[in-house]
Design goal:
Layout lengths: L5 H23 L11 E7 L6 H12 L4 E6 L5 E6 L4 H15 L11 E3 L4 H24 L7 H26 L7 H32 L1
Antiparallel strand pairs: 1-3, 1-4, 2-3
Length: about 220
């Protein structure tokens, strides 16, 4: 049996430590989420005319100081401003409306403007639409891999494939937890990139094993 090289041992140790540390952080602190997925508050101001997001941004900087704010144009004619941030008090809502009215000459009333509470979005809800397509794709890929590499052993190929793909995703989420990278719009593309890289590593490893099997047969 071929001995594991020192470099491989070190790499495996690093991977194990990263996964353990990631698991501890996930259990104790959980993931960091983008503002749009956090528990937050939102107000929608019907400006009834074209407006600049930059202008609204200047106003929110004055009202909410250092808070992160998401500003979006909504409605068909994009004449309503959606302002979302971690917390909005009644006083901040009043300031916001006053400044927007001054800026655009509107007559938005405080009593007609509600502070909407937005619940926290769970990570599984973000990736749920992609789970089934990934499962179907993985099954098709596993079937495809078994055919050219069947001489290595069907069970061996399947186990390697599942471990390689699974380890890639576990490692990704461990790194996300350790670094505090927010779960959000870039999470799904990252999952797909790591998925593709895992497949490339898997195929490369299987090719090497196939080559070794062929050499053994020729002896």
């Amino acid at each position: 049996m071929k001995e594991i090289s020192q470099k491989t041992k070190i790499l495996l140790l690093i991977i194990i430590l990263v996964i353990i540390l990631g698991a501890i952080i996930i259990v104790t602190k959980g993931f960091n989420f983008d503002m749009q997925y956090q528990e937050s508050k939102k107000v929608e101001l019907y400006i009834q005319k074209e407006f600049s997001v930059e202008d609204i941004k200047q106003i929110t900087n004055e009202v909410f100081s250092n808070q992160e704010v998401i500003i979006q144009k909504v409605e068909i004619f994009e004449d309503m401003a959606s302002i979302q941030t971690k917390e909005i008090t009644e006083d901040q809502k009043e300031q916001l409306i006053t400044k927007v009215n001054e800026k655009y000459g509107t007559e938005i009333k405080s009593e007609d403007t509600q502070i909407i509470s937005i619940p926290h979005t769970k990570g599984r809800d973000i990736i749920r639409p992609y789970i089934m397509p990934l499962v179907i794709a993985t099954v098709i890929i596993l079937i495809y891999l078994v055919i050219p590499y069947r001489k290595i052993g069907i069970v061996k190929v399947l186990v390697q494939a599942i471990l390689t793909i699974g380890l890639g995703q576990v490692l990704l989420f461990s790194i996300i937890a350790i670094t505090g990278l927010p779960i959000g719009r870039y999470t799904t593309p990252l999952i797909l990139v790591i998925y593709a890289i895992s497949l490339l590593i898997l195929v490369s490893s299987l090719e090497k094993q196939k080559s070794l099997e062929k050499k053994e047969e020729e002896k």
